[in-house]
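Entry 14. Structure prediction run on the chain below.
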Amino acid sequence: MAVKENLRPGGRSARVQASVHKAVRELLAEMSRAEVTIPLIAGKAGVTPSTIYRRWGDLQALLADVAVERLRPDMQPVDAGSGRADLEAWAEQYAEEMSSGPGREMIRDVLAAQAGANACKCCEYTRQQIVVIAERAMARGGPFPDVDLVMDQVVAPIMYRILFGDVPDTARVRDLVTRVMNTPD
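Output returned:
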């Protein structure tokens, strides 16, 4: 079941979502994921379980929705002076955050949900960060590869390593950036 978009920003729906998301985050900080249930979340959020089921459908969809919100960047990429330096700083931070324990849990929650909409949102958040770096580089008059190329040659290998291998170290991340920055147009 897809998560319904907030129809009345700032209205009751937004307050319910904020309360439920907060309850999930607090419960996950207090207990193991296996112990968290919709009735517990509803009680902590001050809503009925049926409200949660109606909006999210099941626990996994709710966990995915909370994870997507937590994965939304809360700031612009660091301005390190050049497209290459900006991308390198961003990619190192991205790899570190996504490979952390909480980062891996959020990735698993997003991917475990039945609908792919949450994964698409996460991809778009990442893409938007790369677009900011690309636009900044072009405004400086410097070269920058196509955003899709960066997604394919930097972001995808980082995420693959996090999901199926070890943590990509700084040297590996820098190598990915070097390769994509040296790719001919």
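Confidence is low (pLDDT under 50) at residues 1-8.
Filed with the rest of this week's runs.
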